[in-house]
Amino acid sequence: MDLLLAALVAVGVWLYRRAPAGRRPRRRGGPPRRPGRRGASPVRRRTAAGGRRPAGRVPGPRHRPNPTGDAGSSAAARAAHLRRSARGGLGRQALAALGVPDAAGDRQRAQAARWEAGAAGERATAGILRQLPAGWTVLHDRALPRGRANVDHLVISPCARVWMPDSKRWSARTGTVHARRGRLYRGSEDWTRALDSVEYEAREVSRALGGVTVTPVIVVHGAPVAGGGITVRGVRIIPTAGLLAELRAGTTTPAPPAARQLADRARAALPSYQERNR
Question: Is the separation of the CB atoms in 138 and 153 below 8 Å?
């Protein structure tokens, strides 16, 4: 019993030292908080127009939104949230230090790893799309008007055609991506639900843009795709190497005014997911 008590005390001291300063208990009678710190009374500031606004974070270069959106940002934010939840509070960390199994934390860490892989896939697709020449509009991580779903990428060609690439980072260990009897498979695993998702998102984007045709494309990172590309239920599934060729193949007569108008409508109707949910 004495050994267990000593171990708990040692773990408590270790966790206290590792905790950020803001989370440590502060002794009573200490110096008062300085203005501007967390917990201080809000100070009101005058704006350039003469009005007043509550004090808070002043937008600076690091906080200006990217007009094209940041690829993978919402997936990365979800992963970070899950990892914070998996760490838990001091009590949960103490139990983990004593070797007590944490099934809930393990599940959250596994989910975080999947979201991190998704974010990496979206960033890799964005790197490929940066190779498109002038005249193409590329937007990343856009929020749908309804619900909490997001669109990985939206591409508007110079001829005003709209593509919706959806990034999938699938391990090659699961086998080749292929179609069978109108269904999508990764090796022996049925992944037709991926088609359901992109079809829904394409319909929502089309509605937001006034009924224009939106072509979904699933871009696969990692796993090989049978035949270098397949079509299931009208949705193209291609490896990353075929993305640019797929987009350029659908380019016809340029229509710059229509393309610019469509791009402006997309920016307004489909804002950055992170900015909308900030």
Answer: yes
Model confidence pLDDT, tens digit, residues 193-237: 999 999 999 999 999 999 999 999 999 999 999 999 999 999 999
Q: Is the dihedral of CA 223, 226, 246, 166 positive or negative?
A: negative
Token readout for 231 is: 């079509």
Residue keyed to tokens 């795709």: 225
Q: Using one digit for the tens of pLDDT, what is the confidence trace for 111-141?
A: 777 878 778 888 999 999 999 999 999 999 9
What angle do helix axes 90-97 and 2-18 make, rounded to 10 degrees?
130
Q: Supply the pTM of this predicted model.
A: 0.67
Question: Does the CA dihedral 31-36-41-46 come out positive or negative?
Answer: positive
Residue 205: how many other CB atoms lie within 10 Å? 22
Helix (H, G, I), strand (E, B) or coil at 60: coil
The tally of CA atoms less than 13 A away on the side-chain side of residue 217 is 22
Reduced to 3 states (helix: H, G, I; strand: E, B; else coil), residue 219 is strand
Say how far residue 123 (Cα) sits from the centre of its chain.
Answer: 10
